[in-house]
Amino acid sequence: MSDKLLSMSDAIARYVPDGSSVALGLALEPLIPFAAGHEIIRQRRRNLTLIGPISDILFDEMIGAGCVSRIAAAWVGNVSEGLGYNYRRATEHQQPHAITVEDYSNYSVGLALLAAALGVPYIPMRSLLGSDIARNHPHLRNEPSPLDGTPTLLVPALQPDVAIIHVQRADAEGRAHAWGGLGICEEAALAAKGVIYTAEEIVPAEVILSDPNRVLAPAFKTLAVVHSPGGAHPSPVQGYYNRDHKAYAEYHEHSRTPEDFAAWLQEWVIDQPDRAAYLDHLGTERWAGLALREHHYAAPVDYGY
Amino acid sequence: MAAGDGAYTPQELMVVCAARQIRDGEVVFVGMRLPLLAFALAKRTHAPSAIGLFENGLVRDTPSRELLMTMGDAPNILGAEWATRTVALMGLLAQGCAQLGFVGGAEVDRYGNLNTSYVGSREHPTVKLPGSGGGADIASLAGRLAIIMEHERRRFPERVSYITSPGYGDGGDWRAQVGLPRGGPAAVITTRALLGFRDDTHEMQLLSWHPGSSIEDVRAHTGWELAVAPEVHETPPPTSDELRIIRECDPQGFWTR
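Predict the joint structure of the above. Result:
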């Protein structure tokens, strides 16, 4: 297999053009590819469609930075603090510009990606019946089951142009290991036309191949692998670092007004050329405070025969 | 309640009320914030066999050993029974495997419909709320739903302007009519009271007022003529054991102050 290792700036420049639909933040609160999101902001991407389940502040940041024209998600805000101010400004006051919102629930956005992953036009479900999410949705359709006539909601397939997934480790050829609660990472990786992995560690292929059950998706879907240590901060990466709760509170505080947010964006995104600089700006003491306090290794499994 | 012996915060009483909704042996779809503590409290008191499902893809038989800010925090994954995919857990919920689910809401109405999406119109919202998350799925598919709310008049309109998470629609057998397979709200746990729903009309009714509140106080902070159950009473306060456990789980009072 070919070498897919790219720098973050090259991966985003090559595979996330203006107007792309991008799935990210797919494991819910952990493994959020903040470093990739910040690079997208720095490269001034425009008219993106963001797809995800919940987005814990990354969508809010990208909306505020003007990258986004459409959201297809179940929840956009700040999980431990509440509302997302940029999301509010965009939807209530069209600042910095108007965005289109397609409301999903976590189950329905997962099923939309699963339908694409399975290569079928839609998946029926019985969630959201009677809700205004179903009633107002441009794509969800209320249709009786052809089998027994009972009401179902048809969730059409949703195929992102690219899924960006932060993982614990990957190899240069595009295979990735991730663990923890995985949200809709697998559905998105299988559904997307291509996947960019950002990884805490780049490991030899034999490390990944030693445990094929832990691989998220086939490497032929992989567009690029980016070595991005700390690339999920402030979200947590199991086995690598903990969630920086304080960062979410600080973001909440510093995104209340457009002026506050502009200053925050300048300090934490625009002025940081890459993730190493960002972590340097965060400071070694703060970063050390998020380090693992203890290790809990899984028992090895035997693939012998 | 002020600090001191036997004193507790409204949030601590809400955690206790939420924990009391969990029956031993049940599979519970645990939400965010206070239910994270309620699950831990129930496990350590009357419901040691309860199982917790978390929509990021976790099944737990034991509460996490540290306080959680989010369900995806590392301590919630360590010691999980199963770490999997959201769709796998939601599929279990859709089959009817979860007897109880928790959600929070910005607005709840007379028939337990929840709005967590748009205050004002959808086209021109005065406040855009974050949205469903998994809440609408839990409300659609869990066996019983427990709703956790701040009890303010503006949060209790007679009719929500947008149904994010379906309750009983406009009452009666609405859920069956629209095709929801089961469920519906069983409890609304607020800063002032515990409310339930009539079996026939599925209209919300007051079950108990919290100490310091009253029937009049609850009704004054509700946006319609709130019905009162015949057996209405004062909510039993937390026991000292319940308070001790809550404070062991959340020593700084992150969720309970």
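Chain B has one domain: 10-249.
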